[in-house]
Design a protein that fits this description.
By secondary structure, the chain is mainly beta. The chain has one domain (6-140): Sandwich (Jelly Rolls). It has 1 helix and 14 strands, in the order βββββββββββαβββ. It has one helix at 124-130, and strands at residues 6-9, 11-15, 18-22, 33-39, 45-51, 56-62, 64-71, 85-90, 95-99, 103-109, 114-120, 131-133, 140-141, 146-147. Strands 1-9-6-11-4 form a 5-stranded antiparallel beta sheet, with no helix packed on it. Strands 8-7-10-5-12 form a 5-stranded antiparallel beta sheet. A two-stranded antiparallel sheet has the order 2-3. A hairpin with a 2-residue loop joins β2 (11-15) and β3 (18-22). It is globular and about 55 Å long. The relative contact order is 0.31.
Length: 149
């Protein structure tokens, strides 16, 4: 069965002691590493990174990010007419965006000083061998947040 991008929803609990965010349906069994990205400017765009094998899980720590993705039809020569989708993930909600293998993704902070945590099923050396980079101007209008196709 082919995996598709999806949101893994969690929740937020607050009382007099403070606030707790959780995503209890997220399973760590296939996670081999995590890393964090902080954007100091809302003008920074990290796009596109394609992966044939790597699964990515995105969780916002602070602020908000627009994450766009596109299913790649041919990793060596992808069509410029692929349709991108996107979702804004933010720290006011407790949710994880899952992107399966076979997709390229890009990210852009939509609030100042935003921080994003990314979980991966691949170790860093295997991920480095799995990545294919594409021009950020393909598939998505990052200024107007819409697919180009």
């Amino acid at each position: 069965m082919e995996e598709i991008p999806r949101i893994i929803s969690g929740g937020i609990f607050e009382d007099e002691r403070g606030r707790m965010r959780y995503v209890n349906d997220f399973k760590f069994e296939a996670i081999n590493r995590f890393y964090m990205i902080k954007h100091n400017s809302q003008n920074i765009i990290r796009a596109w990174q394609g992966h044939k094998l790597e699964k990515k899980y995105f969780y916002t720590i602070i602020g908000a990010f627009v994450i766009a993705w596109v299913k790649i039809d041919n990793f060596q020569n992808p069509s410029p007419f692929l349709k991108a989708e996107y979702y804004e993930i933010n720290s006011r909600k407790s949710e994880i965006l899952f992107l399966p293998p076979g997709y390229a993704n890009g990210i852009k902070a939509s609030q100042p000083n935003s921080e994003l945590m990314i979980f991966s099923n691949l170790e860093v050396n295997k991920s480095g061998n799995d990545i294919t980079r594409y021009d950020q101007k393909l598939w998505f209008d990052w200024q107007n947040l819409r697919s180009l196709n």
